[in-house]
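Q: Give me a protein?
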Amino acid sequence: MNLNASILLSDVIFRSSFPRWMAMILFVLAVAGTIWFYHREAIKLTPVRRWQLIALRIFTFSLILFLILKPVLNAEFSEKKSKPIWLLLDNTGSMTSKDTRLNPNDQSRVAIAYDKVKPNTPLNSAGSFGELSEPKPTRLDLVKAVLNNPRLNLIKELEEKGPLQGYLLGLRSRGVDVDDTKALPQVLNGTENRTSLLEVIHDLLKLDDSDLPAAIVVMSDGRDNSSTISWSDLAAECKSRGVPLHIYGVGVTGNGFLQIREASVPETQFVEDTVTVPVRWRCEDLRDGEVDLSLRLNDRIVASKRVRIKPGLDQFDNLNWVPEKKDTSPGKQEMTVTASVVGREDLLKDLVKKSVRIVDRKIKLLFIEQTPRWEFKFIQRALLRDRRVESTFLLVEGDPKAMEAGMPFLKDFPATRKELFAYDMLIIGDVNERFFTKEQQEWIKDFVSEGGGLVMIAGRKFAPASYDKTPLSEVLPVEFRPINFPAEETNPPEEYQPKISDTGERNGLLALADTVEENARIWKSLPGWYWYYPITKLKPGAISLLQHPKAKLPNEDRPMPLLAAHYFGKGLVLFCGFEESWRWRLNEEDKYFGRFWGQVIYQVGLPHSMGSKAAQIQLEQGETEVGKPTRVFARLFNADYRPLTSEKIKAKIERLDAGPNEPKSQEIILESVPNQPGEYITTLPNEKVGKYQLRITDGLAEPATLDFRVSLPTDHEMAPGGMNEDALRELATSSGGAFYREEDLHTLTGKIQDQSVTFYRRREVLLWNRWLLGLVVVFFTAEWLLRKYSNMS
């Protein structure tokens, strides 16, 4: 028991089952018997001696009876004890970062931590870390140096304020013996992969007021990425509970980090057409400043803008430029998107490069339709507004005067094969097969086989029903039966929402937004359709891009394709089993309708205009993050533009920014997708941050490449960034404590007020113990000695 404790209340209880009334009777009998015994003693005794012996005998019997009853003392004590000091050490991965210390003050702070100068030395005269064996210590190294600094003597001085309790913090906290300085480097190793600084302190405060510390000393960089409680809420709680936070901020601020997270550079750009390059970028650890964004074609800046920094947020900006005729070149050119912090261009800069082609010609398109139905009217308007397309229209049942008026209308189908082959693509609407002669159908078949594009838009009258068993039916990616649709429906048609297939999600043709999530949202919100042309089967090698949400293929448990594609020879062919995309213009005009048909034209017509590509490679997501595997999809063709049929294809991943001692490449295998000739898939592990290139040569006439970057998530423990000084400083001062850098640490313990707390506790003290038994022996022995002295037996 503490000697400084005070007993406030006490009482004695008996734990024995021996009856108390029996004990009282025995006590009375023992007293009476003792008196009677000593008064009948034969040896003559003085009265004083007689009563001394009687008293000793009665005391002995009394103590024996007391022991038999097993007495217990119930007491309430009050004690005062010093409140503890909690020392929280950040043991997360961000603390293993090595900060670049450009500022002389930051260099001086390292010298103070490592005891190269006195702790109270002003920063401007503290020197630098040039004398250290490790010029770029980690943040954990600084913490260890501070704790072991003999002139700071933090551990001993904190212990003088109260019992010191150490904790390592990560996602949770665990106790650590901070007195064992030899073991501290082993346990303080930065292995925790998440920081929950605020949550840990909040959980530790869930104690009774009497158990709370006098102060909490925190050593951290403040990069919390897992807490659900806010900084202000924790500060208010610490203030209300009377627990000030004294925080040593570890690391540097103001170095900054800049990264272009995504830049969508169009691969093909047209002369005299505005090119928009959306750029998503992020700047960390800079409180203020500006960033210069620029777009370069080879070595020439073609677009630029200066933007104010919003620290810690993804920022979105567009760079626009209009290619001129002088910008064209026979081959590919290099376009670079650059971001740099104004005034610190040498240190904070990032760039993304991509090969592009500048085209000085328009896509020549021939649109043939039977009658001007709604789909034709609105596609025609969109095409006539598109400066990248030179459109010609042929209406079989159009106004003869309009057809003879000249461009953009054509009176008759091209008279010669050469005239037809001057076009890059054809769109055939709901046109009667009889409009084309057998020879013209063969021309179209050869046109596609040689690289021309073809789109057929199904209709209720002729397409594709009238083309059964014709040369053009061989070109289409679908098999079908002729169906006669009634002029008027007997039952009102049911509205349906077309659904993008898995393959369609990876195809830019159906991209109505710049992100996968936004694109999915838009497709779900578009006005529905009511009609479609049911096919019977996809041809081998054909893919379904858009499908019906309910209808199935006959004899197959597969969704009914609404938009199907395949290559016939070198040319891409699309079959559109719908005629109601014009409904998308409701409240949106050409926002989605025009984008969709523009992408159809470029994807189908550009291969003929620019030369077909033997491979298409695409990441499942536009952005890849370390530790999150990403699938890669590839559509591969041989020299004859036939889909590859090999079960496996070898490829190589090269790390473009690998260090001298790091592996620069590794081989991977792409596996074929079942029932999808030419489609291959593989999974990238994304184990390390860096810039990479996926290169495929196996089975291809020429190599195909895909450049991509693996980045850290913004909330990743190792994501670049300095100390969160503003948040730590505000947390410390709002809680009633203080914030410290290395030059302030010598004042830390002086600002902590040692406190004590009075606590009350009840305690049972067993009185039937060896001390009481010893007293029985003492009284018994005393009586025996006194009898001997009195010559008694």
Remarks:
- The chain has 18 helices and 35 strands.
- The CA atoms of residues 416 and 440 lie 9 Å apart.
